[in-house]
Amino acid sequence: MQQTTLNVIAIGIFGMTLSALLSPIFNIPPAIPALATFGILGLATVDTLSFQGKGTTVLLDWLARRRSEYRDRIVHHEAGHFLVAYLLGIPITGYTLTAWEALKQEQPGLGGVQFDTQQLSPNPLAIGEMRLTLDRFCTVWMAGIAAETLVYGEAEGGIDDCQKLKEALTLFKRPAGELTTKQRWAMLQAQTMLQDNWKAYEALVKAMAERTCVGDCYRLIQEHYHS
């Protein structure tokens, strides 16, 4: 069961308990809050069993997007991934900025920038190339957090990105203690690349907010490269 669905269920249980305590004070019939709570729990359960929690994710994302700062953070975060991936030569196959867009494109969760990850596979015959590939992808995964930090002073997103980095280190059989060091190194690399190409980053943010296609985003970056 996805964490978002578990959170909704937990909120539903809390709401039912709270409503039971407050109903006598405000003269609210106990059946009303109870039916509403059970309805929410029922929808969350159906969503989990039938749609793997995607409906809950779309709903929560839609509610969060009522805040302009949330929408701005998403596009700044994903533009960081996009630009650093381009600079490191990792092919970009597409991007989404909302859970609904991700659902329509059959992408998990809130979506984001999609990369060609065929290069990310252990090859025991090319250790040096394997390490270089891992470093490139780690830098791209930390680029969203790096972008948010540069723009807002701190990052709210990036949990999934850190998980991807952790899974990659496990895949390549790297020591567990390397995780924190690799995250810090990759984030510093990403921050430097973004700062060195800041005009391209700002132009990319505006273009992605308008859902500009990947090819046109590429051309936009080339126009502002190191400018």
Account of the 3D structure:
This protein has 227 residues and is mainly α. Helices cover 72% and strands 3% of the residues. A two-stranded antiparallel sheet has the order 1-2. α6 packs antiparallel against α7 (159-171) and α9 packs antiparallel against α10 (214-224). The longest helix is centred in the middle third of the chain and has 26 residues, at 127-152.
Secondary-structure blueprint:
Layout: H1 3-26, H2 31-51, H3 54-64, H4 68-87, E1 92-95, H5 99-104, E2 113-115, H6 127-152, H7 159-171, H8 178-196, H9 198-209, H10 214-224
Antiparallel strand pairs: 1-2
Helix pairs in contact: 1-2, 4-6, 4-9, 6-7, 6-8, 9-10
Give the tally of β-strands. Answer: 2
Structure class: mainly alpha
Query: How are helices and strands ordered from N to C?
Result: HHHHEHEHHHHH
Shape: globular
Keywords:
disordered N terminus; 10 helices; 227 residues; two-stranded antiparallel sheet; globular; single chain
Question: Outline of this structure?
Answer:
The protein is mainly alpha-helical and about 230 residues long.
